[in-house]
Structures are given as C-alpha cells and as structure tokens.
Amino acid sequence: MTPPSSSSTGPWASSVRDMKRVAILAAASEVFGEEGLQGATMRQIAQRAGCTTGAIYPLFASKELIYAELLATSLADLHAHVSAAASGAGTGLPHERAAKAFLDHYLARPYEVNLGLYAFNGLKKLGVGKEHDRALNKALMDTLVLLSPHERRSRSSPPDAEAMATFAQLIGTLVLHQAGRLQFAKLSPKQLIEHSLTTRRRAAGQQET
C-alpha cells in the first residue's frame, strides 16, 4: 500500500492541517471562556489542545487571531439563528422573536457569552486588528438591528435605542443567569425577557401577531 504523501500541499497534509485547526479552536474556546482574551496564553491553548505552541503558530500567528476566528463563527451562527426567527413564522412580533432567539442561542452555548463579551464591551479596548475589528463589529451590528421594532432605514444604519435597550437587557439577563442571581427572584431568563417584551409591547400599543 502506498503511504500517504508527505507533501505539505497534498490532500493528506491539508486534512491534517484542518484537524489541527479544529483541535486548536476547540481548545482555545475553552481557555478563552475561562480566562478571557487578556488572561489566555498561547501556552495554555497548546496544552489544552495537546500540542506545542510551535504547532499553533503556522496556523495562527497570535491568540488574537484565534479569538477573532472563534468570535466570527459565533456571531455568524448567532445572526443566522436570530434572522431566521425574525423572518419566520411564530407568535410575537418579529423583533420579539429575534430577542427570544438571541437568548436561546446563548442559553444553549453558555461559554460563548464570555467569548461574545469581547465584542459587547467594545472592540477598541481589546482590538484584534483593524480589519478583524471592523468585520466583527459589522457582524454584531447586523444582528442587533433585528432587535428593533422599527424598520431599518438603510444597510448602514446602526442599531437604534430600542434595539440597544433590548440588547443590554439580554446581556444583563445572561450574565445574571450565569451568576445564579435570577434565583433570588425565582425567575428563569426566558420569563424575565418575556415579561420585558410584553411590557414594552403594551406601552407602545403594538399588536402581537
């Protein structure tokens, strides 16, 4: 049997490279979830992935680039989930369905809340490079505009006050839930957001579809 080609550009090498990337990204997501971007190190990621730092650098030049790829994937998945909920069938107004989908997405992926807080806190403070920062900001903004009860004026329009208020409550609810603080009021995250959305709808005189 002919052994697999050792060529660095052959299909075998490409497959191995892809498997290494998957392992590194999986390990990094755990480390970043525990330590955040500032606290994580390439050595910690390598140890969690079962490799050396030397095996990481040909694939990722820095921990910031690993973080950027993880966050880009996370935000893309978030947008797809929220967009589908907002445009699909179901009870509630489109922006309400979007808010509930946002919450459900992160309740199912608790480690991504900490990952996403990097974007939520403002990319300028802990930038991963201007090009990546712009792309990540845009990905987040594209999802946040779906939380508004108002029609978006243009593709470049930023999220309005209503969208940002909902976003702030969603993030606050997720953080309180992870910290176990909602137990004091004997409320689940979904109950809290449902209460908020219902109160806002009544105040605005909107009709539920």
What this model shows, in words?
- The chain is an all-alpha fold and 209 residues long.
- It folds into two domains: 9-61, Homeodomain-like (Arc Repressor Mutant, subunit A); 62-204, Tetracycline Repressor, domain 2.
- The chain is 67% helix and 0% strand.
- The protein contains nine helices and no strands.
- α4 crosses α6.
- The radius of gyration is 20 Å and the shape is elongated.
- The chain starts with 10 loop residues before the first helix and ends in a 5-residue tail after the last helix.
Number of helices: 9
- Alpha carbon gyration radius: 20 Å
Question: In terms of per-residue confidence, which ranges show pLDDT below 50 for 5 or more consecutive residues?
Answer: none
CATH A-level architecture of the largest domain: Orthogonal Bundle
Percent of residues in beta strands: under 5%
What's the quaternary structure here? Answer: single chain
Q: The biggest beta sheet, please? A: none
* Shape descriptor: elongated
Strands, count: 0
CATH level 1 class label of the largest domain = Mainly Alpha
Order of helices and strands: HHHHHHHHH
CATH topology of the largest domain: Tetracycline Repressor, domain 2
Query: Termini distance?
Result: 64 Å
Summarize the amount of helix as a percent range.
Answer: 55-70%
Structural class, from helix and strand content? mainly alpha
